[in-house]
Amino acid sequence: MSRSPYALLALAVLCISTGSIFVRLAGAPPLAVAFYRISLAALLLAPFAAGGARRSWPALPPRPRALLMAAGVALGVHFATWIASLSLTSVAASVLLVNTTPLFTLFFSRAFLGETVAPAVLGATGLALGGAGLIAAGDWAQGTNSLSGDLLALVGAMTLSLYHVIGRGLRGALPLDAYVLGVWSVAAATLALLCLAARVRLTGYPPRTFGLFLALAVIPTLVGHGLVNRSLRRLPAPVVGLFLLGEPVAATALAYVLLRETPGTWTLAGGAVVLAALAFLTLGERAPA
User: Fold this and answer.
1) According to the model, what pLDDT value does residue 288 have?
2) Residue 156 pLDDT exceeds 60
3) How many CA atoms lie within 13 A of 218 on its CB side?
4) For 49, which of 120, 133, 177, 277 could close a Cys bridge (C-beta 3.0–4.6 Å)?
């Protein structure tokens, strides 16, 4: 019996929720954290995906090959911007805002995939936008750094939605493992170039930091994002993106327990609205036609 795609997404949320905590604990420059997260994940996946990649990559036509490269660049920029946001704003605000991905996925999936959008998805998107506005209003009083963190998180949301939509468009062109290895490898190369351009060092960190890099590669990336990729082959991209709005609950709770970080009133209010979007979507998806 095949597993429910919603069960896979629930496990993905649990794993991905640890990412912001590992980033904070690592204490390294954001670009270095992003590079090691995705490059170590690609290295760990390579032994299992190399066979499928060798068979499928050479036969890939030019257009899907270009899309694969574009997805990898989008994923690399997503990690660079979102991880940078965590050094400027709270875990709760950053994770909530990066999970507004469906606001962008709605547009991209319509424009590039021609997917129809159910009324429940439109309503949930409006709720998510309102919640994001409340979070930004609260951070306005915290100064420009917090607002810059919010903006970086939103850029991370936009690029993540591009990655999701392009991945769904490639679902028939490559085996899943070959697709993931290709995208992660391009993302790692993108981040390496960004580190070089920004003169961010990639060596000299203590063993504890490298251990946290490895934890980032395995738990939220290999397991979490791997399950998201699998779910995208069975569910529309907007549904996957909205379902992942469950991540901020666990991430905020972990930040409170492990980092002693208490979200502000505006963040909690905005978060409640954003999470209401997920409940609205789930009810809409289950309602009879």
Assistant:
1) 41
2) yes
3) 6
4) 177
Cα→Cα distances 19→2, 92, 110, 134, 248, Å = 28, 12, 29, 24, 11
Instruction: With H, G, I as helix, E, B as strand and everything else as coil, classify residue 136.
Output: helix
25-34, 170-179, 186-195: range with lowest mean pLDDT? 170-179
pLDDT at position 283 over 60: no
CB atoms near residue 285 (< 10 Å): 17
Entry pTM? 0.83
Q: What is the pLDDT of residues 25-62, one digit of tens each?
A: 999 999 999 999 999 999 999 999 988 888 888 888 88
The backbone torsions φ and ψ at residue 153, rounded to the nearest 5 degrees and listed phi first, read -65, -40
Q: Quote the CA–CA distance of 86 and 167 in Å, as a whole number.
A: 26
Joined together, the tokens standing for residue 88 give: 């400027």
Hey, how many other C-beta atoms are within 10 angstroms of the C-beta on 44?
Answer: 16
CA dihedral sign of residues 74, 226, 120, 289: positive
Can you list the pairs that 205-213 forms with residues at least 24 positions away whose Cβ atoms lie under 8 Å?
Answer: 205/28, 205/32, 209/26, 209/27, 209/28, 210/36, 212/22, 212/25, 212/26, 213/26, 213/28, 213/33, 213/36, 213/37, 213/40
| pLDDT tens by residue, 52-93 | 888 888 888 888 899 999 999 999 999 999 999 999 888 888
By the 8 A CB rule, do 209 and 99 touch? no
How many whole angstroms separate alpha carbon 268 and alpha carbon 155? Answer: 21
* Phi, psi of 271, deg, nearest 5: -65, -40
For the chain, what are the domain ranges? 5-286
* Residue matched to tokens 């070959």: 178
Q: Are 180 and 68 in contact (CB under 8 A)?
A: no
Phi/psi at 253 (nearest 5 deg)? -65, -40
